[in-house]
Amino acid sequence: MKNRLRFSWLPCALALLAGCADMPRVRDDAQWAASLPPSQEAAVAADGSIYHDAQNMELFADPRAHRVGDILTVVLVESTQASKKATTSTSKTDQADIGAPTLLGKAITAGGRSATFGLDGKRSFDGAGSSSQSNQLTGQITVTVAQRLSNGNLMVRGEKWLTINQGQELVRISGIVRPQDIGQDNVVPSTRVADARISYTGRGTLADANTRGWLSRFFNSKWMPF
Questions:
Q1: pTM, two decimal places
Q2: Helix (H, G, I), strand (E, B), or coil: what is residue 34?
Q3: Rounded Cα gap, residues 205 and 200, in angstroms
Q4: Alpha helix (H) residue ranges in the chain
């Protein structure tokens, strides 16, 4: 009886593992939070000089982001479309006729019939497959320069949380931007972001309603033996 109870829990445990493996996780990672600037030191005593290193007086500098901590806006203009179609057809036909053997000039017969025989074979295969996928993401998100590389490129990252009614929407992006690609309005399109990682997810009532249950995920997972 104990063995039966022990093995009866095995399918349930596998179902739970398969269900948890496919559940999306959205976490508030600390690395995405904007780093706080270091505490400002006391102002330097006035000594009659107009410019001080501790003060930021960029009268003729470019307003575009170029330092760690600067912010810029990324315009999401992602649009992808892919399609694939494959068709395979093969056919093969074999035919062979062998005459009746002869012995001493006479054809060998069996039951008064000629001993000739033949072989016929025919094989064919038809296969077809097609796949298509399209995605589109538009919008804007303001990010922060996290690191300035040795060649002058900027590593940026940022996220945006939107709480609407009973759900939350999250947009995240990270990548490398060339200063030359940043426009005069401090805006860069997402197509100009190298090594871009863009994610758009959500959680809440609406996200749960569009998610399959753990039992359904188990029957459609690799753990299902049938």
A1: 0.56
A2: coil
A3: 16
A4: 2-21, 205-209, 214-219
